[in-house]
Amino acid sequence: MRHKVAGKKFNRSASHRKAMFRNMAKSMIEHESIRTTEIRAKELRRVVEKLVTLALKNDVPARRQAYKVLGSHTLVKRLFDDIGPRFAGVPGGYTRVVKMGQPRNGDAAPMAIIEFTREAAAAVEEAPKAAEEKKTEE
Questions:
Q1: What keywords sit in the KW lines (predicted)?
Q2: Do the beta carbons of residue 48 and residue 135 sit within 8 Å?
Q3: Hey, which bits of the chain come out as E strands?
Q4: Contact by Cβ (8 Å): 72, 65
Q5: Does CATH place domain 14-137 in 3.60.15.10?
Q6: pLDDT digits (tens, 9 = 90+) for 51-73
C-alpha cells in the first residue's frame, strides 16, 4: 500500500528521477513553456511552483536553495529577476498544464504543455497601466 507516498516513480531510480525533473525545471525556466507527457507535467508542476515560491522570498538563502536545483547562476537570476516579480501578491497557481489533443506518435502517450500562468508580455503591459493609474490619483 502506498499510504501518504507522494509522487510518481516513472520506473526510474531516485537519482534518475531527480535529474529528469532538474533538467525539465531548467528548460521550463529558460523557455517558460515546454511540451511533455501529462503525468510528467503534473509532477513537474510541484518542482517549478516551489522554485517560484523561493523567488518570491528573494533573499540569499532562497537563491542558494534555487541554485541547488537549477545549478546555474543565470537561471537563478532569471527566476528571481524576471519570473518571480510577475507573481508578487499571487498566493499560488503559478503554472498551468494544458492537455494536447494529439497523443505522441509511437506509444500514444497523452501529451501536455506546461507553462507559467502569467507571461512576460502581460507583466510588461500591466506595469505602465499601474503607473498611469498612480498619476491620475495624484
A1: Ribonucleoprotein, Ribosomal protein
A2: no
A3: 33-37, 95-99, 111-116
A4: no
A5: no
A6: 999 999 999 999 999 999 999 99
User: Which position has the grid cell 501578491?
Assistant: 89
Q: Is 0.90 topped by the overall pTM?
A: no
**Pairing mode, strands 33-37 and 95-99:** unpaired
112 grid coordinates: 501536455
Q: Partners of 112 in the beta sheet?
A: 36, 99
* Angle at CA of residue 7, ends 81 and 44, nearest 5°: 30
The three grid cell numbers given for residue 7, joined into one nine-digit string: 509522487
Domain ranges of the chain: 14-137
Measured distance CA(74)–CA(71) in Å, rounded: 9
